[in-house]
Amino acid sequence: RGLLPGVMYLELARMAGAFLHQEGQVVSLHTVHWAQPLFLDQGVCPVRIQLEGTGAEHAFRISSTQAGAGQEHASGSLPLGSYAPAVTAEASPAAMCSRCGLERASS
């Protein structure tokens, strides 16, 4: 019995958000709800990725139809925008030791 890995739901949502918001990017995924797994018993299974919202945040829902019944597999929200990691301090080993009050062992 085949099973779609849960990380694929996250990647599908991220790709849909990136396609929708081409100027920026998906910065993170929030409030992810894992409803039920997607079993791939019949080989081909259409999967629907639905985005709702405007502006900087969209809700996503991933669902499928198997044996005539709709099933929700995952949902959550996608904040959209630009990602710039915050650098607040020097990251060298010596600087980290100094901030922690430690002495670096000599080799």
Order of helices and strands: HEEEEEH
Computed CA radius of gyration, to the nearest angstrom: 21 Å
Count of DSSP-assigned helices: 2
Low-confidence stretches: none
Strand content is: 25-35%
Q: Please give the number of β-strands.
A: 5
For the biggest sheet, the summary is: 5 strands, antiparallel
Average pLDDT works out at 79
- Distance from N terminus to C terminus (CA atoms, Å) equals 54 Å
How would you explain this protein's 3D organization?
With 107 residues, the chain is α+β, with helices and mostly antiparallel strands. The protein is built from 2 helices and 5 strands. The N and C termini lie far apart (54 Å). The mean pLDDT is 79.
Question: What are the SSEs and their pairings?
Answer:
Elements: H1 6-20, E1 25-26, E2 30-34, E3 47-52, E4 57-66, E5 69-81, H2 93-100
Antiparallel strand pairs: 1-5, 2-5, 3-4, 4-5
Q: Notable features of this structure?
A:
34% strand; alpha+beta; 2 helices; 5-stranded antiparallel beta sheet; 107 residues; single chain
How would you summarize what this structure contains?
With 107 residues, the chain is of the alpha+beta class.
